[in-house]
Amino acid sequence: MNDLTLDGVTYVNGRTLLDGVSLTFPAGRVTALSGPSGSGKTTLLSIAGGLLAPTSGTASYAGASTWTGTGDPRPEVAFVLQVYGLVPILSARENVSIALRARGVAPADADEHAEAALARFGIADLGERQVEELSGGQMQRVACARGFVVDAGVLLADEPTSELDEGNRGVVLTELREEAARGAVVVVATHDPAVVEACDLHYALDEGHLV
What we know:
six-stranded mixed sheet; 10 strands; 27% strand; globular
């Protein structure tokens, strides 16, 4: 198992969004990342997962930088995005399946795994529905299914329960723990104290600094 490590990460884009952040997200644990809006949570996740290059400092996993120079995450990294990032013209199942197809999984196998991933979040019956027909909470669960289906070594989830009721929030938290149990690095950015309480570790950000 490999940890995800940030060492002296600073990110400047007009203003300083992260300032010398050093921390370790351990494999096999669920880590909460909290802080007010604008504190740098999403920026930190983006750098940790290789979507953004830090202005200075490093983010590394399994002995190599998460930034590959392209803005595309390494195959070992999966995201659950706060804005969902789903393709409106595709069905729920297709949105999950494409994450596997992009990693070289055969279409039939990808579709089968996608159905199972939707079932983990109680939405197997929505597989044929187009994303534009779904509610916010349903889209959030499709986004979770897409992030979880690839069995990534690193799973970075940005506010994955913000649209969910208590029951479905519990389902997502259970599945996050399942990902950690198989040895993944699991990081959850959240405003929800109940989610923070349910995690193994907790880091808090404020104005780009660890507090």
